[in-house]
Amino acid sequence: MPFIGKSPTAGFATIVKDTLTANGSTTQFTLSKQVASATDIAVFVGNVRQEPTTAYTVSGTTLDFGSGNAPAAGLDMYVLHIGGTQESSIIPADNTISTAKLQSGAVTDAKIAAMAASKLTGALPAIDGSALTNVVPAPSANSIVQSIYSPFNAVRKSFSNSSTYVSSGHSVSITPQYSNSMIELELHVVTNTGSNNVQIAFHETTSSATDLGSKTYTGDHAGWRTVSQMLQVASTGTTARTFEPYVKSASAIYGIQTTTTTAPGHSGAVLIAREISQ
């Protein structure tokens, strides 16, 4: 019917009726709805309302009259579900729904699929490592994380520059996996300097050809020989870095013992960059 003023926030639902059959021996009956309390239903036997908790009890959908109290056969028996028949459309206020009011498992993945990462706060629980897969453990200190091998099989290169360093054209690039690693450079090269000295310096070409350190080899004979050189530099991040030997000598040859592009049995030079964990 019409009313004056603000619309009410509550309505009413239809009362559910369960019609049961008494046979004089059955004391437990199944209801059509879950019942929280004996006072949520009105039980009638022979059209006489029964007293809740005294004449009967309920548990879920089971109506129980108790041992020896079976309703007599032929009596009309029915149950009216009167609890919760007033339905409220009031929207709960913010921060009023507790965890206890939510069913376990009621919040599905579909409800949290679009959750912003900023809402995920707090410390993560401890995780049993045995349950993790495809996880690479952190390397132990002073172990090799990766090693990049760069051979030099080009035509040998001659130098006649006693005052400045010249690029050897031989380089190696490495991208550190850890920002605090050390990078170890190792060079083995076939060279011929005659009686002249030769100086080999590692340069980092990604930093305007920065000189990272040099070593002088004395020209003590006029034959071919292999010289070796090593150097360690600190990693400054996880971006790619390129290193190259530079050569300074009045007369020197860097690389294989031939003027052709290949020489069986002679690799010319090998440059290796290793990432060493700290």
Please explain how this structure is put together.
By secondary structure, this protein is mainly beta. The chain folds into 2 domains: 11-87; 144-276, Jelly Rolls, CATH 2.60.120. The chain is built from 1 helix and 17 strands. It has one helix at residues 109-112; strands at residues 10-12, 16-21, 28-35, 41-45, 48-49, 57-64, 76-81, 86-88, 144-152, 157-167, 172-174, 182-192, 198-204, 210-217, 225-234, 241-254, 269-276. The strands form 4 sheets. Strands 9, 10, 11, 12, 13, 14, 15, 16 and 17 form a 9-stranded antiparallel β-sheet that branches. Strands 2-7-4-5 form a 4-stranded antiparallel β-sheet, with no helix packed on it. A hairpin with a 5-residue loop joins strand 13 and strand 14 (210-217). The radius of gyration is 44 Å and the shape is rod-shaped. It starts with 9 loop residues before the first strand and ends with a strand. Residues 260-265 have low confidence and may be disordered.
